[in-house]
Protein 1
Amino acid sequence: MSTSVMSSKLLEQAIQDRRYLHEHPELSGEEYETCAYIRSRLESLDIEILDYHPPSVVGFIKGITGERTIALRADIDALPIEEEGNKNYISKKSGVAHVCGHDGHTAILLAVAEWLSKNRSEFESDVMLIFQSSEEVTPCGADLLVKQGILQEVDAIFGIHLWQGLKKGKIGLSHGPMMASADDFEIIIEGSGGHGSMPHETVDPVYIATHVIQGLQSIISRKLNPLTPGVISIGKVEAGTTYNIIPNSVRLSGTVRGLTYASVKLLRENIKELTKGICTSFGAKGEVSYIIGTPPLVNDLEQSGFVEKVIRNHFGNEKFALVEPVMGGEDFSYYLLKKPGAFVFVGMGGEKSSFPHHHPKFDIDEDVIPDAIELFIQLVKNFK
Ligand code: NI
């Protein structure tokens, strides 16, 4: 176990940054003032800024050898929600608030940037600092940056989330799948309507829809390996106008979650096939529009092993937590589709952070900010 490399001044600045960002939240895709703030901090530290599509800001710092490049990512967007509570740094913008902790992520990466810029002789690899817009929406910021080629020169990428679901004092990850995909779909069942008293003269799409809804769950229970998690949920059913008219069509809207690329593909293909098959067998037409969202977040085993080693060596064995995968989504997964890397939860669950992410009273526990900064710095120092 080694001691912290940070000064108290650096930590004070991180808290100050975090509170400023918390008071001035911006929605996904609109983070222009946040970017201006980040940009001016990076410029004052003499950090090169790379040219990527705003409102994301990407900094670059050369290492001693520059043989490899490590990327660190923070998401910077807030949510459309009215913040509640009485903290003295509460959101100054009505209806917008940092209730996922991205203000903390941004402040942490700024502190890392400051430390790296002032200790350039202490790390070998080049470092890319990605302050990423639009984590919370589709299309998301990560996908956009990857499409712009941001990872071309990158060997590995790391990201954190301050995590209320993990106990304060722990830092951890899963080796392999860690967070779920989030796809949506819409099914239109086209039948042939008519009088409710004469069903034999119709092709009743409402009746057929009941079979489709039931059938979809058989994909989970009969197609997916029982040891592989997966969810299919129908959240919206739309049909008909009154008691005695069989409508022409039914529209079903639903969502799909999975933890591996293979399971998500299996769910997608089976939803299409089964819907078509059931509808055809009843003489109707079934069309599935599938909206591919965030892919599952799957940590690279070599890099997640590296993170575990850094946590154990630097903070001590008791700090490390092997995290159970969660069914929430995270657009960091787009980076991991392209390059190896790992996503890490920094635990903060406890008295100071007791409300779940996205709750109007959610707050981060600032006590864990130093560990998060230290983790990023140690990943850079130890990256080979
Ligand atoms: Ni988040």
Protein 2
Amino acid sequence: MSAKELEGKVSLVTGGSRGLGRAIALKLTDLGSKVAINYVSNDEEAANVGKAIESRGGEALLVKADVADSKAVKNMTRDVAKNWGTIDILVNNAGIVDDNLLLRMSDESWDNVINTNLRGAYLCTRFSLRYMMSQSWGRVINVASLAGVVGNMGQANYSAAKGGLIAFTKSVAREVGSRNITANAIAPGFITTEMTEKLPQETRENILARIPLQRFGNPEDVAELVAFLATDRASYITTQVICIDGGVM
Ligand code: NAP
């Protein structure tokens, strides 16, 4: 990947304070993009990402907002555009899990997971697209999950949200392709972050046994794929769902 190929671009990474979002934000910075870091509560971690970006010579903007809150998302996208003129690259990465078997799942758990993972991506995309459309260039990159492709026991809420996100991505891509905007989803398997560190040891070992590459992914593996999709080298890729999972069976 040649250096600085995203020079002059403005990225908004939701859930950028930790895990995959942090690695994605740093990778986009390394390619020359200014990066707005969205998060919902973790001021300290978000500030750390901001500092890490600046120490690499990049420009960061912290934009705290609940992605499921329409008004907050509208203000956030305006805030980014007010500071940097536009939004070129949107990475819908903010996500939560709240696992339980379906018969024990509460309505609240269902709603929270759907709202953050699916409604959040819908709102951020809707409010960012206007900038991309007016400049006839844009990238929407949605962080779905393998669970959204094949389902997962105990994750009916999360799988539904991520499966919905995949279908949403394809529809958006078809709507805005004529404006030179691509929309793709990525479907990570098991990546080492706080989200997966909570899994019991036995579950982790069972999963590992099903991964031909014999390791969990790391956030940088995912960041490489997102960064590629953001560049002009990926300008003819749209409506796709790209699994990044070590070949898990
Ligand atoms: P993580 O470490 O738990 O980080 C979650 C991020 O989302 C944090 O930055 C958090 O902000 C933010 N967030 C949560 N709710 C939010 C809301 N309502 N509004 C705005 N931001 C919110 O998660 P991760 O493992 O990096 O996962 C990132 C994405 O990858 C998620 O969409 C997840 O579903 C997907 N994914 C992960 C894996 C994996 O193995 N890790 C696999 C497949 C897909 P705060 O710091 O402020 O809480």
